[in-house]
Amino acid sequence: MQTNSQFDYIIVGAGLSGLHLSHSLSRDEYFKDYSVLIIDKKTSKKTDNYFSFWEIGKGKWDKILKNKWLKGNFFSKKDKIEMDFSLYNYKTLSSVDFKNHVKNELKKNKKFKFIDDLVLKTIQKDNKVIVVGEKKTYYAKHVFDSRFTVNIYKELNKYTSLKQHFLGWVIKTNENKFEKDSLTFMDYRIRDKSKTAFTYVLPFNDNEALIEHTYFSKEECLKEVYEVYIKEYLKKFYSISNYKIIKSEYGVIPMTTYPFYKDSTKNITKIGTAGGWVKPSTGYSFKNCEKYSKTILENIKKGKDIRIVPKKRYYFLDKILLGVISKYNYRGENIFYRMIKRNPTKKVLKFLNEESTFWEISKIVISMRSIYFVLIFFRSLFNKRL
Ligand SMILES: Cc1cc2nc3c(=O)[nH]c(=O)nc-3n(C[C@H](O)[C@H](O)[C@H](O)COP(=O)(O)OP(=O)(O)OC[C@H]3O[C@@H](n4cnc5c(N)ncnc54)[C@H](O)[C@@H]3O)c2cc1C
């Protein structure tokens, strides 16, 4: 018999991965009789940020998109590359819209319950998991946990690791300064020359856009640094000095080859960033959360290992790519420039989504030929950390 604190599944964290997984569970007939508890700590901090991803044509989240783009640009110091997103559409939604959308759908399902509690620890006992919360103790057959097991930033030092750190503003201008239909994927024209750093522009309207200054580097900057670059960028390339900041977002995302899947146990599966769902060489994870949630359900049905173990060939490529950017941090511009200049956008996006065939991967790797890749390749044979 189940008491009101016993569940088939407990999901710790109603963030991106927890909600993606809950949403997939709720829509799968196989799990229709499973009880699911979603626990998240109550926070007074209301954050609203934007999640972007790319996919072919229509998708699951189209109703709540802030905008979608079929074209865009990449800028290096000396070149402009037009990018074609007509196959893999680039899409952006707000985290608040995403959360509300999923929560409203789950509220209609009596098998799903949300609780505000701070999870202190999880204990695996026999074939069950005890979840100790600040307010109460809960029990489940299986737990999906989006908290980090380890102090990840300490672990980063043992593996090839960087951080994607960024600050962005959504601004509104009086005049129409942006082109709503065209995004800037990466712009390296204004940056700290010793680092991989770029500006990213997502126009939501002709007079409203998200402008973000992003680094792929070892350490975060003072907030003022990102702000100075954004202001300079707006002035130089859009002649904008009068604007209203309507939202801002700041993030630090680990880009690492740390094997997160090893932190899972038989009855506790790590998910989200803590499960290694962030693509190490790009920092993107929205699409992975959707894909991996589906994979988890398929693995459960087939009685297979539930954990998401990185595919060997992509893990290796991420290690090399991260290794080059880590060792030669100023080279990031050149690496992404070669990848985007020498390959059709759809092939690059397919590659970054880890959907390419062996030959497609080979073509991209060959197109980026660089002595730095060769050097890092040989180092990678003997070192866990590059
Ligand atoms: C500002 C920002 C912008 C980003 N933009 C993009 C993007 O455009 N595209 C993309 O693909 N990725 C993006 N990312 C990266 C990535 O998608 C996110 O970091 C994503 O939120 C990770 O999902 P998650 O479930 O692991 O963590 P989270 O979404 O952070 O969820 C974790 C949840 O666990 C809860 N929690 C933590 N500890 C406890 C506890 N002890 N007890 C109970 N609950 C707890 C938290 O309250 C939180 O709700 C962005 C990240 C940030 C920060």
Task: State the main characteristics.
single chain, 386 residues, alpha/beta, FAD/NAD(P)-binding domain, 3 domains, 7-stranded mixed β-sheet, 30% helix, globular, binds flavin-adenine dinucleotide
The percent range for helix content is 25-40%
Small-molecule binders here are: flavin-adenine dinucleotide
Number of helices: 10
Main β sheet profile: 7 strands, mixed
What structural class is derived from the secondary structure elements?
alpha/beta
> How are helices and strands ordered from N to C?
EHEEEEEEHEEEEHEEEEHEEHHHHHH
CATH class of the largest domain: Alpha Beta
When the domains are counted, the total is 3
Number of strands: 17
Report low-confidence residues grouped into runs of 5 or more.
none
So, the CATH homologous superfamily of the largest domain? FAD/NAD(P)-binding domain
The chain-level mean pLDDT equals 93
CATH architecture of the largest domain: 3-Layer(bba) Sandwich
| Spatial separation of the terminal alpha carbons | 52 Å
Q: What is the CATH topology descriptor of the largest domain?
A: FAD/NAD(P)-binding domain
